[in-house]
Fold:
Amino acid sequence: MKTLIRTTFGPLCLMIGCTPFVMVMWYVNTALQGSFAQFFVLIWQQGLLFTIKQIWAPVFWGSAIAWQMIVSFVLFQFVLIKILPGKTFYGPITPKGNIPVYKANGISAFIMTVVTFYVLSVHLKLFSPTLIYDHLGEILGALNIFSLLLCVG
Structure:
């Protein structure tokens, strides 16, 4: 029974619970100014499932701009991982006998990401610095779909 909980019910609860929780937290903080009291009033008036549907429906699939930002970010991070220098680390041997190889360049990739965002948005004015905040619900919706696909796949 412990194995069934650990391998099936635990992950299933995380998959079912975390995705709506993320959207509720985003909505409460952006639309209700952080007021959970207002959120509970909405639940009381409209019901839990209807309230979550109202919150999630407009951003469930993300948007074209959200998907563009996600793909751009992933590609940029992939390039940084490959080109930035870093000390090589070897992971533990996997059950199939593989030894994963890692490059310790995460801090430099983070700094490059922040600097690049700053330069592109503030100095070159290619996009607004508020772009992420303006589309955060759509980004979270798209990432929820992406995470569920990764969990199932």
About this structure: Residues 64-134 form one domain.
